[in-house]
Amino acid sequence: MKTVLIVTAVAAALSLQACSRAEEKTAAPATAPAPAAPVAEPTPIVVTGAAITIGRTIFPIGAPRDLVLAAATEAGGAPKSTGPFAECGAGPMDHADWSNGLQLLFQDEKLAGWQTQTPAISTDKGIHVGSTLAELKAAYPTALIEDSTIGWTFASGELMGLLGEDKTAVQRINVGVTCDFT
User: Fold this and answer.
1) Which UniProt keywords apply (predicted)?
2) Which site among 33, 78, 104, 147 is 20 to 30 Å from 23 CA-CA?
3) pLDDT band at residue 36, thresholds of 50, 70 and 90?
4) Per-residue buried b or exposed e for 49-81, using 16+ beta carbons within 10 Å of the residue's own CB
């Protein structure tokens, strides 16, 4: 008889446990937080003396205007301004400027040069507007620093730019044809 009571008690306990688990399963599930919407990473723009890389595409000086404009627009949105520069020393040019600080210059429907005056765009060696003269010299040890009619300039191969009046920091980086009246 004792055995029957023990078996009955165990069976009852197991039944209660099964019922409570069933209730747990039917209870409203805890809501997991919704996954965060993916944040679109900005398309990287990296400049070198020979080209500009937008995303994974490299555009050398001389690349077709339409291809470069399409990639730059995809990366940075519509240009904030475009138009001709009729008074450049190298002859008439067209330009496109973006709010990220990139300016592209075109002649004869081809990329003729680019420049930036913002820290948002850097060279392949990490130099950007605001980099110090020491950082510039470390990244480009053969860079020539000269006083010119437009101020202190630097040049390393095709990569050029302006330093501040006190020569302590980069103010502009450019390659190719520029129009210093911009």
Assistant:
1) Signal
2) 33
3) low
4) bebbebeebebebebebeebbebbeebbeebee
